[in-house]
Amino acid sequence: MRAWSSLVVGVSLLFAGCSGAESVAPDVVTSTPQEETAQTLPCDAPYADASDGGPTAEGSLQGTLEAAVDGVSGGVVVAVGTPGAVRYCAAGRADSEGEALAVDDVFRIGSVTKTFTAVMVMQLVQEGKLTLETEVTEVLPDLSVAGGVRVRHLLDHTSGLADYVEPGFDRTLRADWDREWTAQEVMDRVGELVPGTGPPGRVHRYSNTNFVVAGMLIEEITGQSLAQNLQSRITVPLGLSHTAYGPDGPEPVTGFALILPRGRSEGVSYRSLETAAGAAGGMVSTAADLVTFLSALDDGQLITAHSWEAMSSDPQGNGVGLGLFSATIVERDAVGHDGEIHGYSSITLLLPDSDEVVVVLSNDQEVPAIEVAENILSRA
């Protein structure tokens, strides 16, 4: 496995600004888990429990979060632990009025959406409706830009397709926040871009376009929308009541970034951003829903062990699976994905050796989720 920082996983989905706006230094507001099991330590407990005589790390999970949000406009929610003993902790603000973030708040999750999309593709593979070697144009014959591209190439970013996410397109999206994009309109944009990285299967290069195409495959094969597939295949079976594609989902907390009007998402329609992102990054969710999703992936509730192995393995040795990345973070093996969209960042991790899950959701781009995850894992 490679170090996470060496992978192209921090790609901003929509070239989000890197700092929050109107960043006064508020009093830090925090919330603690609403439900704790007998095995779960409170958020302000030391990182290591010294009751067995072992060393106790200085500080606590809550302390790490409070330090991360000190002086910024937004905040962070995290979930850390093993199934049945997950700690949910929060610090910072949910809006410009100073409302405290709660552990069950909804966030935009950016490219973490890609893992959901990959799962739905793998379900279709299991159902015999396509294979990883199926050529895209067998299903979408009019999508000539994807000639020679196979399903596998989409999921492991070796398609050679140019990434539609580039500064010019971001400006187009922000010129009309209310516009509703279709996947075909996004692909028409791709056809106008300079060629990508060459023939399919040759070179790995992260491209959001791959998952836009994957979403088109899902809709074409099933005859249902992405939202309908997400509901019937993942959210309803798992009881994920706060997870959806943005246009159909619950309202997320305020996001803070300089690139946004007035530096925050309040009063800003994300219709343009979320519909253009679609299967590549248009979802919203909560920490608890993401923990349930990760646990379901790991224990075979959504896909078979064979499919999970295909998604989470690293056949090329570059840390790239199918809709997932594998890496070493603070000397611990992990598999997961990160995401970013204007005003929000996120990361979901499974640690195979310990069965731990780590979810970090931030609503301020001065608080990158991956850095918070690294800080937690370096102390835990």
From TrEMBL:
Stretches assigned to the Beta-lactamase-related domain: 70-375
MF annotations from Gene Ontology: carboxypeptidase activity
The UniProt record lists the keyword NADP: no
InterPro entries in the cross-refs: AmpC-like, Beta-lactam-related, Beta-lactam/transpept-like
Annotated signal sequence range: 1-21
Keyword list, A-Z: Carboxypeptidase, Hydrolase, Protease, Signal
Official protein name in the record: D-alanyl-D-alanine carboxypeptidase
Organism this protein belongs to: Ornithinimicrobium cerasi
